[in-house]
Amino acid sequence: MTKGKNKRLFVSILMMLLGLTTISPGAFTAQASAAPAAAPAAATTTIRFATYGAIDGWEELFAEFSARHPEIKVEYQIFTYAEYIDKMMTMMAGGNPPDVILTWAQYKPTWVAMGLLHDLTSRWEQSSVIKQTRFYPFILEGIKYNGKIWGVPYDFNSKMWFHHLDAMAEAGLNPPTDDWDIYTLRSYAQKLTSPEKRMYGTNNPFVTYPSQIQWIYNWTGHEWLDETRTKVLVDEPQVVEAFNFWNEMRNVLHVTPGYPGAYTARGDTFTGGYAMWEGWLSYAPAYINTFNYNWGVTLMPKAPSGQAGFAQGHLFSIPIGAKNIEAAWTLLEWIGSYEGQKAFIVHRDRQPSGPYPELWDLFFAGVGPERAPKLKQWVAVTFYGADLARVFNYWDTYPEVTTIMTQATNNIMSRGASVRNELINAASQIRALLADTSR
Questions:
Q1: pTM for this one?
Q2: Helical (H) or strand (E) element with 400
Q3: N or C, which terminus of the chain has less Cβ within 10 Å?
Q4: What CATH code is carried by the domain that includes residue 303?
């Protein structure tokens, strides 16, 4: 990102935040401080921690941290998804940020470019705790930007395919294997789609973002843009092929909803409305009590250039302006450690960041004694062990490019527009956007 754009971006965000009430230190009450197991040390440092989402599990998690580090007290605040980014920007712009914040993968490039986060590379490299901890290499890609480290991993997740085994058995189909391909997907989807049963053969991940980018990558070997984010590739012939495939699936074969006159599925992906569908790995344990059918999993279907699954991870960071950097880093070290990874599985249902078999046993414990060892083995050998979780790296113009591609996709899928013409038009708009932002 250029310095000119950096400045414009920061000014625009500050203007957006005018009128919002700056969060005062009093907003971080002791509502969530964890009581240590033993009497605290004479000198106790209080750090402020902010994230978003459900409040469940944080108190218990920080109690474990404080038992290990009684010299540090954690006060935390949980915001809603809708307000979180604005709240963080307000506090950072006002010079009063929490000591630890959750950096969303989507905002990492912007916050780094704006100089809002501490570079933690040297701390990471010198940490004895980190050196003793095992991480998947691809998960570490999610905490880096421009070759530097900006936090510790949190909430890493990856996509795979779920299959309705009962529906397949009823249709006389064997469950797909991990070497299945896009043609098997199409064939199975046709055989499993049933308007009478109100079941679709598949969902349509191509109309969600950034899943579409992963599909294009598996089809072509590249994303919407090249790796430098300066060359536009959405109008290449192979991208047109990928769009044609999913346009046919929806509007010709009617194996996925959205076409004119489409029927309402009898349920969602967990309750039998779809025979095959793309979803997060974490869905297996998280929704085990919601599934109302026997299910199995596979890798992504093979496309012309591969079958890697979309993956992303957020990170806990220390913002510029944090008052207690040393104590904040101690918390981050613990979050990344084996002990911290285990605590996040127990209290927050997050998958481990490293190849620890016993932690994967814990993560999959809820799916039952028959499925759990199979899923653990599948992740260890077939999915993560084969390096088929591909971490997606957001970039500064991703939101604007997504807006352009969303419009093109809607015109193709919902309005019957020419695939090639829409992608040529989208490419032209993206090139103009990149030229403008590079000035």
A1: 0.89
A2: helix 398-415
A3: C
A4: 3.40.190.10
Asked whether the bond before 210 is cis by omega within 30 degrees of 0, the reply is: yes
Distance CA 2, CA 21 (A): 30
Q: So what's the pLDDT on residue 2?
A: 46
Query: Which amino acid is it at 39?
Result: A
Which of 269, 242, 257, 218 has its CA nearest to residue 405?
A: 242
Do the Cβ atoms of 207 and 278 come closer than 8 Å? no
Number of domains in the chain: 2
Tokens at residue 66, please? 């404080």
Instruction: Determine contact, residues 171/159, Cβ cutoff 8 Å.
Output: no
Amino acid at 346: V
In this structure, are 166 and 281 located in the same domain?
yes
318 and 222 together in one domain:
no
CA–CA separation, 175 vs 57, rounded Å?
Answer: 37
Give 268-294 pLDDT, tens digit per residue.
Answer: 999 999 999 999 999 999 999 999 999
The domain in which residue 111 lies consists of: 3-157+312-391
Residues 282 and 247 in one domain: yes
Q: Which amino acid is residue 52, in one-letter code? A: Y
The token pair at 233 is: 């590739």
The tens digit of pLDDT for each residue in 214-250 reads 999 999 999 999 999 999 999 999 999 999 999 999 9
Pairing of strands 144-145, 72-79: unpaired
